[in-house]
C-alpha cells in the first residue's frame, strides 16, 4: 500500500498555472506528495499526453485527472472531492 497520495500539477508557467500550484500546495496534507511538472519539457508533455491532458493547468491525483480538470476548470471543492488534502487511511 502506498503511504502517499501522488499529486501531479502540469504547468506552463502562466499566471493561472501559478494560482493552481498555490491552491494545490495550500490544501495538500502530509499524505500528499506534490510534484510540479513543466509542460515545456518533452518528457512531461509526453506524460501529459498519456493521461489525456488537453490543457493546462491540470492536476492528476493518484494517476487520474482531477474531475475539475476535465470540464469547467480547477476549483478547491473538486480537488478535495478527488482526495487532495485528505490523509490516506
Summarize the structure.
With 89 residues, this protein is of the alpha+beta class. It is built from three helices and four strands, in the order βαβαββα. 33% of the residues lie in helices and 22% in strands.
If you had to describe this structure to a student in words, what would you say it looks like?
This protein is of the alpha+beta class. Helices cover 33% and strands 22% of the residues. The protein is built from three helices and four strands, in the order E-H-E-H-E-E-H. The protein has helices at residues 15-27, 42-51, 76-81, and strands at 5-11, 32-38, 58-61, 64-65. Strands 2-1-3-4 form a four-stranded mixed beta sheet, with helices on both faces. Helix 1 (15-27) links the parallel strand 1 (5-11) and strand 2. The longest helix has 13 residues, at 15-27. The protein is globular and about 35 Å long.
Question: What is the secondary structure topology, with strand pairs?
Answer:
Elements: E1 5-11, H1 15-27, E2 32-38, H2 42-51, E3 58-61, E4 64-65, H3 76-81
Parallel strand pairs: 1-2
Antiparallel strand pairs: 1-3, 3-4
